[in-house]
Amino acid sequence: MHFICFLFFLCICSVTLAQVKSQSDTSFSFSLAEQPAKKQSELWKAAKTPTVLISLGVLSCVNDDIINRYEIREERNEHMPNFRSTVDNYLMHAPVAIVYGLNAIGVKGKHDFKNRTLLLVKSEAIMAALTFSFKSMTKVSRPDDSNNYSFPSGHTAQAFATATFLAKEYGEKNIWYSIGAYGMATTVGAMRILNNRHWVSDVLAGAGIGILSTNLAYLTHRYKWSNKNSNVTLLPAYTNGPGVYFCYNIK
């Protein structure tokens, strides 16, 4: 069981730390003078780490040779059958409290209160739309058979969305903000498995969705809301279920 947990933490931490590194090399400002290749590169930088995580989640959901989710559940049931904790319900929101708490005591983040809050609201809207769309489409049964909305993990998506929010606002000041944020998010993902509420595949996909949601929120943010030159449109949408309308014009 300890070895499996170690492999899980190693897998999810390696890709999220790659996300931390990519943030220091990425600027999410757009100019109409930029070349299409540059814009495509920035979009790819925002999506590459989430793509790896979501792909691992999907593959391990449909193919047990990638990551055997049933084996991990059996190990959990054998060694920690009575594990129950509600810490994950609160820990997934901790990065948001940290961001506003740091700002309240005078530690300035990357953006002012208005833009920071708008970015958070946008990332939450994207995350919720993506998560509930996948849950409605896939209808995967939970490990405890309580319902058919297991894939992906909403708690994990929330945790990684807020972790990315903290990393973007304060990660440039000190890398330990990012490491701490993703450490908390990874803990939430592990606890969802230990609480027997999610498969490992749900957690991996949820982590990817969370990171992607906040990355897209920052990538598409106008910063000057009166600016009509933005070439990106990203809005929550509902067509036979919740979703996201995304329009990216390359000129």
Automatic annotation (TrEMBL):
CDD domains: PAP2_like_5 (cd03394). It comes from the Bacteria. The keyword Signal applies. Gene3D superfamilies: Phosphatidic acid phosphatase type 2/haloperoxidase (1.20.144.10). Residues 1-18 form the signal peptide. Keywords: Membrane, Signal, Transmembrane, Transmembrane helix. The chain crosses the membrane at residues 90-107, 174-193, 199-219. Residues 117-218 form the Phosphatidic acid phosphatase type 2/haloperoxidase domain. Pfam families: PAP2. PANTHER family: AT30094P (PTHR14969:SF13), SPHINGOSINE-1-PHOSPHATE PHOSPHOHYDROLASE (PTHR14969). This is PAP2 family protein. It comes from Pseudochryseolinea flava. The lineage of its organism: Bacteria, Pseudomonadati, Bacteroidota, Cytophagia, Cytophagales.
